[in-house]
Each structure stands twice: as structure tokens, then as C-alpha cells.
Specification:
The chain is mainly alpha-helical. It contains 9 helices and 2 strands; from the N terminus they run αααααααββαα.
Length: 265
């Protein structure tokens, strides 16, 4: 039965991953999540049922639009596969429990944020607010009033820490060093991971993002800017790195609290 439930969670994850792709792409643009229905962005061909099966449709169609032959990005099936694996692994770790509900809510929120920030450089407030509300309800069920208030306090503390880091970065680099969405995202981190772990997520994300940022800086050092917003065409959003780091910390079960305690003794 454990294998059966793991497979069910995996399938559930890849289906939701496909939906999160739509949400993350359309929501920041103010577009409807339902209309128009999924279509080829080149020829506007409306996708049929056989073209909407996560992962398998991509393989069946050989990564091309059925109508015009336009290549479909490999990013979509990979994202769906990762979503399924994350859901399945969460079940393996937590079983059917309130901890699983918290993990899936947290992961779902971050998956949408990865798409939205990567595609549009925006982390929608709607995602952060709805994710936070669901997490608070689940934490209330798990920990009661006192534990939930502690979690909210940790979220606020993480938010303030990130805000201060942004101000320091703005002063140091003499320009906008971080988006407002990244700062608000830290509330969700503190709420779910706790304050020390939320700060660890920043350092893990920075460690992963640094070589990527250096690579793109060197590759596009003469890049142009978009309009008058002083946003480089090849800017690297920090949100996806934060989200990936937080998911790793959530599912790795590494006792960073013990490590932090040892380092601060």
C-alpha cells in the first residue's frame, strides 16, 4: 500500500505541477487562469485532451506542437516531474499527517513562485497571502494557538532580517539589491521552517546563486536595459534560488538547529 500511495502522490504532484506552471505564468500578468484554455503560443492551436497529459504528452508529441511543429520547452516536463517527485518524497517522509499537509502547501507555494519569478521577475502577493493563510490554519491544527503565534513571530523576524539585508545591500551597491517579493517570501520561510532555518535558506540560496550570477554577468556584461526601469535583459531572479533552498532544507531533515547552536556557543 505504501508504494500505491507514493505513486498516487507522484501522479497528483505532476498534475498540480502542470497547473502551477499556468498559475505562475499567468497570475503575475493579471491573466485569467481558465481563459483562454491551454494553447500553442506560436500558432494558438488549442490543446486537446491528449496534449494535456503531464510529461507523457511531451514524450508522445516528441516535444513539438501537434499543429505547427514548434518546439516545446523541455522545462515544462522537467518541472512537472520534479513536482511529482517532491510530492512523493514528502509522503515518504511524513506519511498521511498534518506535517504532510504543511509540506505540500509550502512546496506548492514555492513551485508557483519559482515559475512566476523566473518568467516575469514577480512574486505575486496573492500566492504569498493564500499560502500563508493555509499554513497558519495547518499550524494551528498541529501546534495550537501558542505554537502558531510562535511561528508567526518567526515569520515576522525573518521578514525584518531580510528587509535589513536589503537596505544594507542597497547602501553597499548603490542600487536596488533585492525585490520586495523576496522580502515578503521570508515570512513564509520563517512561518514554516522557523527563524534560524529561514536565515540558513538565505545563505544556501546565495551560495547556489553566486556562480550562476557570475556566469551571466560575464556572458552579458554589455547587455542592454529594458526601458527606463534599469532592469537588465538577463537579470537573475533570486526568488527561485530561495525557494529551492527552502525546499531542500524542509525535506533534508538536517539538524541545522544543532549546528547553529554549536557555532554560537
Amino acid at each position: 500500500m505504501e508504494i500505491y500511495y507514493t505513486i498516487v502522490l507522484f501522479l497528483f504532484g505532476i498534475v498540480l505541477g502542470s497547473f502551477y506552471n499556468v498559475v505562475g505564468y499567468r497570475l503575475p500578468k493579471g491573466e485569467s487562469l481558465l481563459f483562454p484554455s491551454s494553447h500553442c503560443t506560436k500558432c494558438n492551436h488549442k490543446l486537446g485532451a491528449s496534449e494535456l497529459v503531464p510529461i507523457f504528452s511531451y514524450l508522445f508529441l516528441k516535444g513539438k506542437c501537434k499543429n505547427c511543429g514548434e518546439k516545446i520547452s523541455l522545462f515544462y516536463p522537467i518541472f512537472e516531474l520534479c513536482s511529482g517527485l517532491l510530492f512523493a518524497f514528502s509522503y515518504i517522509l511524513f506519511g498521511f499527517s498534518i506535517e504532510l499537509a504543511i509540506a505540500l502547501t509550502f512546496i506548492s507555494t514555492l513551485l508557483i513562485i519559482i515559475i512566476s519569478d523566473y518568467q516575469t521577475m514577480i512574486i505575486p502577493d496573492e500566492v504569498l497571502i493564500s499560502g500563508s493563510i493555509l499554513l497558519i490554519i495547518e499550524l494551528w491544527i498541529q501546534r495550537g494557538l501558542h505554537g502558531t503565534l510562535e511561528a508567526i513571530g518567526a515569520g515576522i523576524l525573518a521578514f525584518i532580517t531580510m528587509f535589513l539585508l536589503k537596505k544594507f545591500g542597497d547602501f553597499l551597491f548603490k542600487k536596488e539589491s533585492m525585490g520586495g517579493g523576496d522580502i515578503k517570501l521570508m515570512f513564509v520561510f520563517g512561518l514554516t521552517l522557523g527563524y534560524p532555518m529561514a536565515i540558513v535558506a538565505i545563505f544556501v540560496a546565495s551560495f547556489v546563486a553566486l556562480p550562476v550570477a557570475v556566469y551571466f554577468t560575464m556572458k552579458y556584461k554589455d547587455q542592454k536595459y529594458i526601458d527606463d526601469d534599469e532592469i537588465p535583459e538577463h537579470s537573475i531572479p533570486f526568488g527561485p534560488f530561495l525557494a529551492i533552498a527552502a525546499i531542500v532544507l524542509l525535506l533534508s531533515r538536517i539538524d541545522f538547529h544543532f549546528i547553529i547552536h554549536m557555532l554560537t556557543k
